[in-house]
Amino acid sequence: MATFLILVGLIALVIGVIALLRGHIGWARIPNRRTAVILALVAFGVMLPLGRPTPLAEATDAEGLRARAVDLGSRGTRHHAGATYAAEHPGSVVFVASEDGHISCMFQDPLRERTLLWRLGPAEVRTR
User: What is the DSSP letter of 14?
Assistant: First the structure.
């Protein structure tokens, strides 16, 4: 159901942006730019569902056996969306590129309740 809503939201967002650029779209019953902006904002809200809060833990080792709790409130929108996606799709791997340049990897093990986060960067790259 969530995938269907996201698809509908994406279509509505595209129609809203086109109407915003053109000024109106008669067949879609969008008479002016104000209506187009409202449609685009509502569609964007449908595409980014908040989802349920998920426990997030930052792994301190490569295997994720040791981890410490992380407050998701201290992270940005990209991390929230990534953590929500990982929690709703156990077994998937999510990469998040932060605005500050860091890259994080998230994984929700289907057998566990928490989502693991690894911060990736130059310090983690080792040659043998």
Answer: H
Residue ranges covered by each domain of the chain: 2-47, 56-121
Contact 67/59 with Cβ under 8 angstroms? yes
Residue of 4, 1, 6 lying closest to 81 (CA atoms):
6
Distances from the Cα of 95 to the Cα of 6, 21, 98, 103, 106, angstroms: 20, 32, 10, 7, 6
What is the rounded CA–CA span in Å between residue 94 and residue 90? Answer: 11
Q: What is the pTM of this model?
A: 0.55
Using one digit for the tens of pLDDT, what is the confidence trace for 56-106? 899 999 888 899 998 877 777 788 888 888 888 899 999 998 877 789 999
Q: Could you tell me which of 111, 88, 84 has the C-alpha nearest to residue 96?
A: 84
The CB-side HSE value for 70 (13 A sphere, CA atoms) comes to 23
Question: C-alpha 55: how far from its chain's center?
Answer: 16
